[in-house]
Amino acid sequence: MTDKTHAETPDAAQFYLTEDHHPEGSTMLGFWLYLMSDCLIFAVLFATHAVLGRNYAAGPSPADLFDLGLVAINTAMLLLSSITYGFAMLQMERNAKAETLFWLGVTGVFGLLFLGLELYEFYHLIQEGAGPTRSAFLSSFFVLVGTHGLHVTFGIIWLVTLMVQVKMHGLISENRRRLMCLSMFWHFLDVVWIGVFSVVYLMGVVG
Amino acid sequence: MTAKAPSQEDAHEAHHGHSHGHGAGHGTLRSYVIGFVLSVILTAIPFWLVMGEVLESKTATIAAIVIFGTIQIVVHMIFFLHMNTKSEGGWTMMALIFTLIIVGIALAGSLWVMHHLNANMMPMTHEMMRNMP
Question: Which of residues 91-130 of B touch A (CB under 8 A)?
């Protein structure tokens, strides 16, 4: 037994070493699978909203509550942050550290503006007495839009962390891999937001 | 072990350099700008339809929202997430298709079941309504 393990040691060591290095291809696929499972969370919340979204409990309806102008500005913020993240990735490809950090910073600012507007909207709704406890429609609205907002919040925390990492260690391959994962996460959140503004806001207001 | 380390590093670096070509994929400035312009147009149209109350029929407006939303999601997938059938040997596409099937079942199933539950509820009298919790 001991003899056998000893004989296998060189191979085993090699195996663990390569595993430890995270070959880039498998990380991307793994992260994609995580995004798909995240997609299922949103699918369930969308299904809940689709079922409950018309149950107003004699309370306010989307047409009474939603300010589509604000939602349009919010959407613009997220779209702009998506393309500025794209610019950051292009600068990363060129190995330009300062430019990458600049575009990541711009992305973060747009992300924060998006979050600020969303929190303002939530605050406004709760002040009007249209909080999550008012009706089934508002419960499902707050859970769905709030979950997306939480994702954006964690995306921003991740973004700031990576900016510090890039500043300290430069555009090393580990940081490139991390930036590519965050890129997928960020664009994925944009895709979810398309569903949110189409289904929750626009269809809600149409009735 | 120690003697092996440099060659391991080389192989590792080479792998990284190579996998940039076929990993999740990278866009070009052109593809990002095209994607952005398309998504601005595809966002603006449904907002305009709803805010300007352009179409008479609600059903037509909702159909338009669904169509433009779907096209925009595909645009984002291609231009921002760089989806294609070849990345990771087709496994990202497989995972996406599988997810879409599950999402379809969850959405359609929920709506179907809950609609029938609503339609088949016992009619409620005023008496029962008053005694509801």
Answer: 91-92, 95-96, 98-99, 102-103, 106-107, 110-111, 114
- DSSP-derived secondary structure for A113-145: HHHHHHHHHHHHHHHTT--TTS-HHHHHHHHHH
Number of H helices, E strands in chain B: 5, 0
Q: Go through the domains of chain A in sequence order and give each one's CATH number.
A: 31-206 (1.20.120.80)
Question: CA B32, A89, A181, A183 torsion: positive or negative?
Answer: negative
- Spatial separation of the C-alpha atoms in residues A179 and A177, rounded to whole Å: 5
The per-residue pLDDT for range A11-50, each reduced to its tens digit, is 555 555 544 555 555 888 999 999 999 999 999 999 999 9
pTM, two decimals, is 0.82
Q: Give the end-to-end CA distance of chain B in Å, rounded to a whole number.
A: 72
Counting one residue from A and one from B, how many pairs have CB atoms under 8 Å apart?
142
Residue B23 to residue A198, Cβ atoms within 8 A: no
Q: Residue holding tokens 């430019």?
A: A99
Q: Which two tokens stand for residue A2?
A: 């001991």
The per-residue pLDDT for range B105-117, each reduced to its tens digit, is 999 999 999 888 8
